[in-house]
## 1
Amino acid sequence: MNDYKTLETDRLLIKPTTTNDADLVYKLFNTPHWIRYIGDRKVKSIKAAVAYIENSMLPQLKELGYSNYTVIRKSDQIKIGSVGLYDREGVEGIDIGFAFLPEYGKKGYAFEASKRLLQAAFEDFKLKEIKAITKKDNISSQKLIEKLGLKLEGTTGLPNETAEWLLYKIEITAFSIAK
């Protein structure tokens, strides 16, 4: 895993998720917020979290050089959430996502980690645009996505889901100006 980029901010380390992060993945995937706004991934044990990481996160990391990242607070080395760049079925292009354990919400960590990952997407991974999706009733995610500089493009659907998702986009030129 050492070949993949670890990112940093003043308060956070942002490293590619590995099977060593299965405890965080298990906790995150089972929070009410995750289940309501992202969906139940049926990860009901640490063993299932390891399998999810091996089958859904690591293949994209190996193929594209980026995927899901574990966010670690520098002050105490606690794993507090995740951010990621995803080649998600149903979204044309790469989209950014974020999720944090409830006790670390409303502290600016999601914005700080997502902004750093967005910077890496354009500067390190040489992507030209990034998208984001969120459910229509997830107002806090919409505010964060807009604070990151993404603009509402419309709506989209995802495979095997009936919900309509809001679709946002930012291009490298808009990100350069917003920096």
## 2
Amino acid sequence: MGVQSVGGGQACSSISLCADDFALSPGVNRGVIEALGAGRLSATSVMANRRSWAKGARALRRYAANADIGLHLNLTLGAPLSFMPRFAPTGHLPEITRVLKAARKGDLPEMEIRHEIARQLDEFFEHFGAPPDFVDGHQHVQILPQIRHWLLDELEARNLKGKIWLRNSADRPTRILRRGVELKKALGIAWLAKGFSRAAAARGFATNEGFSGFSQFDPCSDYARDFETYLRAPGRRHLIMCHPGYCDEELILADPVTLTRERELNFLLSPAFADLLRRASVKLARMSPPRLEIAA
């Protein structure tokens, strides 16, 4: 992992800090770009089916040499890019509870989802001018049974084997318990992701090893305290997800996670964040090798 320093000082370990949901709204884009510009993130993942992506892509290109820019595969928010009469008959993607239920039954519409995965990858490339450095998923859909295999098929067909990495949203139960934050959610996702990293490795795709960042998205919670727990018991290639941004009308209409995004952003931009990393002897790092800056 290449290292990006935050706050100076000596570091003995590194983590990847990824802002999810880029392109969800203009306010989210503005916040993520601000955090990238301040050197307070080492990755962000993009919702390529959102209307803020085309404009946001131009702003992201200047950070391609210093941060991982990935696809946030989205099958649960907004409108799909493809025609999905079974999966999204109303023209809007279903809630995660419905997707989970169908995945458990093995009843997801294969061709519709395969086509949507391909369209979102196409949309990423069209506006960014390069393939993603990695793929993760909104509400962790990339780890779900059936979806994980269709995603791996598509990435392999595009000759991306060994060139990009995938987010494993799971961690060891002992590590999760040591952190003590959102235990039910973190343990549930770990159970759903069972076998994901092995399946990815068998197809030639690396994954992170260690994952944290689960939040209850409570605007009254102490995000600085929560973030300190995310640093506990890190894996060898530890990844922390976060959700910074500014609240705007489009965000309010699209997603229930609103005010906490500004609290996260304020913390990431604060001296307290740099001090926390310094005390923990941690630096931010990207998981991919540096690549040349993408032309505007």
## 3
Amino acid sequence: MSASDHPPTWTFLTHHARVLVELARDPEVRLREVAVSIGITERTVQNIVADLFRAGYLTRERIGRRNRYSLNLDQHFRYPTEGDLPVSLLIGIFTNRDLGKP
């Protein structure tokens, strides 16, 4: 049996990070699409978006029947060892954008 026969039991990025990256890639994406892309439930994505909103990592603007998400890329990581670094570094890596230096 090879490692490719079994799905991974852990990943390097949390679901919160993956949702943030998906919203950075497409600010008008539907949360249902984010859920499918990441492999989690839509309800879990909704809860994560609510967490990120409350923590100041994103804002939402209602446009008709859709939401548009804007990220606060100057917000810093929550873990103390990375607390002096902005999340723009993570987003830049996964969206291939130069979002500035810390």
## 4
Amino acid sequence: MKHVLITGTSKGIGLETALAFGISGYKVFATMRNTSKADDFKQIIATESLDITIAEMDVDSDDSVKQCIDDIIKKHKFIDVLVNNAGIERHGSIEELNMKDFKDVMETNYFGVLRCTKALLPLMRKNRAGCIINIASVSGHISSGPLGAYAASKFALEAMSEALAGEVKPFNIRVVVVEPGIINTQMASDISIDAESLYPHSKRLAGMFSASLKTPTPPTLVADKILEVAESGTWKLRHPVGPDAEPFIQWRKSMTDEQWIDWSACSNEDWYKSVEQDFGLDAR
């Protein structure tokens, strides 16, 4: 039986990923910051008779990560797959978002991944086997207001993952980056309008997310992709997932940097027309 450790499993993509691996016969270590929120998850595990162990781990804490992973390794000897899913989102213009929000996003989305990865790499390297799946985002390719802080963390994750993949391939360790688009999760639903913002981007983005979520893409789609890449043995680094993921990425690639900045800076009317023309979304 293969073992998988997944972070951020209290809801959304993380929870669905834990269930997907459990149903596929893996021994799953489903970690989360606050296990008191896992009552419904525990009920599903019991009803489905899944081999899933819920463990408390705060990826923001060196001590918490070390203690949790050391305990798992001591009892079970090895982790075949690490899924770095835990993540948070904070949105706001660069001027208006406070420094704590910038630091919190980077702490979880980037340094949290590093903590878990570094805790497991020595064992994977020693055994010359393992798979590390980092859940990034389309925002790891596209940066615009008011998601500057979030995009910065995902750009950093993409860069680190690319470097890591080259370092560990000689030890037969695979590194995979999964890049969801707009997925029907609490995080996506929480993208809201800041009525007091001096900048129009908050209202625009909230409208785009709201329009996209009218035909929602479920988190199970991402969970299935994560399981697929874990089991496939693929060495392909990046895997966009969701009907809008690849189109968004290619849309950005079709523009020069200056064109992208001009698009972000254009009038509200021109922006809404562009989104409707390119993606069929009425973001107004």
